[in-house]
């Protein structure tokens, strides 16, 4: 929490992300606000102002770009690429921090919360994500064990079976798209949210608790941060590109595919 309000550390996080964009040739696709160091201290952060809209502002997004799905894919590729090609990754990509800018680029804001992930943990995470995409629960269980998220002596088959039950419950969640409009200054804006059935969510939570207690699940901090961001991106996918599968779509590059390119730039 203290790091989140240390603006010198946040400034360093922003500069690291901007270097990543420059090194990877992504400055035409995305940006982060420039920090004015001479006007900044540990308690004051002075930055370039960016103009744009959150990725949940459907009406404004449609007026800025012809294909919102393309913008979402850009955001995913930039973020996935930063997992290993940047000193840290943005770990709070809610709608207030991830914008579509007026010039069509993706704007990443507020670097108070960032994460860092080791290649070993990310390798296990990639297997985990890939196993979700194809419903391979044996691989999912093995990857969680590999990243040290469980007790040492775990029955992989039993663990895989329980994971399948949890993820089946997730797939069965009833969701509702809630669209809200607001009028002002002779204009109407449209925003949207995904709402889930509360009873199903409570039942799912109890299942997760049961599985966690049975296998001693203790996720590394970076895993929890990654998973939270993927849930944010899942929300944007449901709103902007409901037919997109972000774990299977060939247009989306996972971080390890860019690792060598980044290292070769140094």
Automatic annotation (TrEMBL):
- Superkingdom of the source species: Eukaryota
InterPro entries registered for this protein in UniProt: ABC1_dom, Kinase-like_dom_sf, Mito_struct-func_regulator
Annotated Gene Ontology cellular components are:
plasma membrane; plastoglobule
Question: Domain named ABC1 atypical kinase-like: which ranges?
Answer: 2-142
The name this protein carries in UniProt is ABC1 atypical kinase-like domain-containing protein
Which species is the source of this protein?
A: Arachis hypogaea
């Amino acid at each position: 929490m203290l790091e989140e309000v240390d603006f010198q550390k946040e400034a360093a996080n922003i500069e690291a992300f901007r270097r990543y964009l420059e090194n990877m040739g992504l400055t035409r696709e995305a940006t982060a606000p420039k920090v004015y160091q001479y006007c900044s201290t540990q308690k004051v952060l002075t930055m370039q102002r960016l103009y744009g809209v959150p990725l949940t502002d459907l009406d404004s997004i449609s007026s800025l770009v012809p294909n919102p799905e393309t913008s979402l894919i850009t955001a995913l590729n930039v973020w996935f690429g930063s997992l290993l090609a940047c000193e840290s990754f943005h770990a709070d990509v809610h709608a207030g921090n991830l914008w579509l800018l007026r010039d069509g680029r993706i704007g990443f804001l507020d670097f108070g919360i960032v994460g860092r992930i080791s290649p070993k943990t990310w390798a296990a995470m990639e297997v985990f994500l890939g196993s979700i995409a194809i419903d391979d629960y044996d691989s999912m269980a093995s990857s969680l064990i590999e990243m040290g998220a469980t007790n040492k002596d775990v029955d992989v088959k039993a663990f895989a079976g329980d994971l399948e039950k949890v993820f089946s419950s997730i797939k069965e969640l009833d969701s509702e798209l809630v669209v809200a409009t607001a009028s002002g200054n002779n204009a109407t804006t449209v925003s949207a949210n995904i709402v889930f059935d509360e009873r199903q969510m409570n039942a799912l939570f109890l299942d997760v608790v049961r599985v966690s207690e049975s296998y001693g699940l203790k996720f590394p901090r970076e895993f929890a941060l990654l998973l939270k961001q993927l849930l944010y991106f899942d929300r944007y996918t449901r709103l902007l590109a409901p037919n997109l599968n972000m774990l299977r779509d060939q247009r989306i590059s996972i971080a390890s595919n860019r690792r060598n390119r980044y290292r070769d730039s140094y």
